[in-house]
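Today's session is about reading a structure prediction critically. Students often jump straight to the picture, but the first step is always the sequence itself: look for stretches that repeat, for charged clusters, for runs of hydrophobic residues. Only then move on to the predicted structure, which in these notes is written as discrete structure tokens rather than atom positions. Here is the chain we will use throughout the hour.
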Amino acid sequence: MDALLERLRAGLPAEALITDPDVTASYAHDMASFCDAGTPAVVVLPRSVEEVQHVMRTATALRVPVVPQGARTGLSGAANASDGCIVLSLVKMDRILEISPVDRIAVVEPGVVNATLSRAVGELGLYYPPDPSSWEMCTIGGNIGTASGGLCCVKYGVTAEYVLGLEIVLADGRLLNTGRRTAKGVAGYDLTRLFVGSEGSLGIVVKAVLALRPRPPRQLVLAAEFPSAAAACDAVCRIMERGHTPSLLELMDRTTVRAVNAMASMGLPESTEALLLCAFDTPDPAADLAAVGELCKASGATEVVPADDVAESELLLQARRSALPALETVKSATMIDDVCVPRSRLGAMIEGTAAIAEKFGLTIGVCAHAGDGNTHPVVCFDHTDPDESRRARASFDEIMALGLELGGTITGEHGVGVLKKEWLARELGEVGLELQRGIKSAFDPLGLLNPGKLF
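Below is the predicted structure for this chain, in token form.
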């Protein structure tokens, strides 16, 4: 410990090091449930690439593990500390280095908050689409590490589609540049994409070149109430089959709707079994909403309410934004799942989750990015009740298995971390796991970067 701190201090300002155990403990974990976390030896908050390089050279020399972190809003334990590690928090590297309206790119440090970047580019008539629900807190580096998604993925895609190039500090302190600033480029292997979603296990992102789009018109939203989740999922399939491209297509099941009603008095009918929200940011969104409204009615919607203006649209979206906070009031703890299935199997996923909830005697609410099949079952449980906690964990495993049975994936946007290590192995298979471990070894032969995560 003394040797570690001595070496770190040789290349870092005093304020960049935190050793107070009461403070370092607050950096030990992210927001995931059921994920073990160790006790870090020290927390480092660098402000420059050179300081990150110094940390990694020190870690390599002393064989000390390093756990990179952003804002710790993740839900898989990917940012959890291991015993005796260096927690490398990138939140102080928070500069927007460049915004180019001509090239439609932004160059940023990893600690830039997603909402800060979105507002900055918006002032120039540009748009950075990835919008995780935690966008007011989460950082671009964390978004890259977990390949985050968000509400707009149905039209605009996830973080991976917007990362053009990266500057990476490798495990031994060398600096690697990947990708490009150009609109096109196919030189060599796509190392940039390899780092997106790697959860800090291959290198430390210290700079990112991000693609931007022209800012679209403000979206209008439609809310449709359904007598069953199956009917709502049928409407989703009809909308996508007819070639519509909504900017948002979100679904909330009965449990979620009732929780939102109880917390926020949204006035949604208690008879609502599923609520579908659809938005368009096209030149004529009212016409698009009218067409979708007819498809919803054809699928059995009992009520279809299109917004007349942006203000009314925002009111409708409040129900979706309130989903997780509302479910958190149901019990003392929640376990947030993230399973993505083909759109055509969305109904089976939601109905299967309801059956799992009944089997284990638990409350499980489902909200979903319905347009891309990404479901978020939220298991509500009493963390002081050992049996209920056990059932919560068991239900999580059954939901994972259901997703794979339906041809899906164990995570669409939250990542693997600690929570889903076992399930990643099942999804990849023996050959896939062997190759992924080989890639990890090529970039981090000593196994110092975020050990114990992914596999």
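Discussion point for the tutorial: Residues 333 and 376 are 15 Å apart (CA to CA).
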